[in-house]
Amino acid sequence: DAKTTQPTSMDCAEGRAANLPCNHSTISGNEYVYWYRQIHSQGPQYIIHGLKNNETNEMASLIITEDRKSSTLILPHATLRDTAVYYCIVRPRGEYGNKLVFGAGTILRVKS
Amino acid sequence: NAGVMQNPRHLVRRRGQEARLRCSPMKGHSHVYWYRQLPEEGLKFMVYLQKENIIDESGMPKERFSAEFPKEGPSILRIQQVVRGDSAAYFCASSQKTGGNTGELFFGEGSRLTVL
What we know:
The complex is a heterodimer of chains A (112) and B (116).
Chain A: E1 9-13, E2 18-23, E3 31-38, E4 45-50, E5 55-56, E6 61-64, E7 70-75, E8 84-92, E9 106-111
Chain B: E1 5-7, E2 10-13, E3 19-24, E4 31-37, E5 43-50, E6 53-56, E7 65-68, E8 75-79, E9 88-95, E10 106-107, E11 111-115
Parallel strand pairs in B: 2-11
Antiparallel strand pairs in B: 1-3, 3-8, 4-5, 4-9, 5-6, 7-8, 9-10, 9-11
């Protein structure tokens, strides 16, 4: 079962920052926060992940609160191609890896 | 460096036939995961395999479905005696052996099964 809570949908204006929140109040110390997205009919795409420090890559930034109970994915300059379902997932670190459990995600609509 | 390759991309079967879906993981990846996405629904985990071993099959239906990842060749998801409810997109993902690392999953573009 998914251990995260996300808004069902969000709208964002093209060129503006998209801030997608995620609550994971029951996260444990050995669990990472992962973000994936799925553009219509395509396979899910990895975006970013973190444990407790904020992370940034060429796609996005991940801000994790100090208590780790919530996080925010930031797309700094959203484009129409960023319209997708965004999934926030907590995943334990394990010797043999672990499956990702997807919830319903947030439908992000970027509008011109 | 090729990504996760799935084939066929589209498969049509009549009720009662068998469906075989293939997945070649990314180079260097030894872990394979299968997910199913029913129309207008979310991604549901089915099975997680390493070479020649099933690690977690908690999401696999008890009957008609099987998966393998042989020493040589792609991973195969096999659905026997398909029914209309099996119509879905089936996604495969792969990851490296984690050994304590985070091992993100990389997904293929999916195989879309239609049962007539």
